[in-house]
Amino acid sequence: MRAEPSEIVIRGGDYEHALAIAGSHGGVLFGYEVMRIHDIFARMIASRPFEVCEFSLANYITLRSTGHDWLTAIPVFPYRAFRHSLAVTQCESALTSLGQLAGKRIGVEDYSMTAAVWFRALLHEEYEVDHRSITWVTGPKQRFPFPAGATVETSEADLEQLLCERAIDAVLAISPRDARLPPAQRRLRPVLPDAQAEEQAYYERTGLYPIHHCVAIRNDVIERKPELVDIVYNAYEAAKARAYQRKLGTTLVPWGGAHWVRTFEHFGGDPLPYGWTSANRVVVDRLGCHLHEQGFIAAVPDVDRLFARPTTAA
User: Fold this and answer.
1) pTM to 2 decimals?
2) SS3 sequence, the chain?
3) Which of 1, 10, 232, 271 is most exposed by smallest CB count within 10 Å?
4) Which residues on adjacent β-strands are paired with residue 107?
5) pLDDT tens for residues 275-289?
6) What is the CATH number of domain 87-206?
7) CATH 2.40.50.320 applies to domain 6-81+210-305
8) Tens digits of residue pLDDT in 98-132
9) d(CA 251, CA 231)
């Protein structure tokens, strides 16, 4: 009699390249539950409820570098983003360059989030702005203590509302609520008038497409089923391959197909490469260096020791 496959529910973001994860892979029946990403991270750090989940890469490196070894990442990177467009300000603001943010007050939901780490590094490396010159206004719930040397205020107030009231100068907002309003009603805009052009120039100059999230497995789960490292990795690879085959976004917007072709050519055929490749290692190592520079960890980590290697991965 054939044994029934076990079931593991993976928690992660709502991505086209994760749609096909739910189902049977390698004898394991997977579910895929879409959750608010920040909730996944906060709950995992607080109480470790998930066997497998998408996880903040900056938070993972910080945990492992500070002696927390109860989870292990695999080289699946489901979310990347350039961060030149992350800072938004009031429509009437005189700010038009990230270099003008020195000495300003900037809101950020969680000081430790990967997007904020990359953004502070961007300020320093590309615009010669020391993040310590900025007053960072955060929400009351933080995943990690603030690093020494950072000037931080916590606030119970809504950060976008603080910006509209001019109590702060900008907000780091991945998906600002204001952007969902009709154009005539919007009160906020990106600091950079043409962030995409600056992001493209940054990529051409550095070759970096910043990684934000990895996939992590609790160590007790790996100990029970070591082959899960390969199985989870292959499930994500198969789901991504299916998404690339379907080209979902190209059917929704005009010229989507042409944009798809140009973008894939620009990124060598795969904008979201998985595996512990030399290119991915460079990006992860750079993030580790930034975490050290910003005071989250005491030393630059050996990133090769942070990831389990699937036997089927590059």
Assistant:
1) 0.95
2) CCCCCEEEEEEECCCHHHCCCCEEECCEEEEEEECCHHHHHHHHHHHCCCCEEEEEHHHHHHHHHCCCCCEEEEEEEEEECCCCCCEEEECCCCCCCHHHHCCCEEEECCCCCHHHHHHHHHHHHHHCCCHHHCEEEECCCCCCCCCCCCEEEECCCCHHHHHHCCCCCEEECCCCHHHHCCHHHCCEEECCCCHHHHHHHHHHHHCCCCEEEEEEEEHHHHHHCCCHHHHHHHHHHHHHHHHHHHCHHHHCCCCHHHHHHHHHHHCCCCCCCCCCCHHHHHHHHHHHHHHHHCCCCCCCCCHHHCECCCCCCC
3) 1
4) 137, 171
5) 999 999 999 999 999
6) 3.40.190.10
7) no
8) 999 999 999 999 999 999 999 999 999 999 999 99
9) 31
Which pair of structure tokens corresponds to residue 222?
């790996």
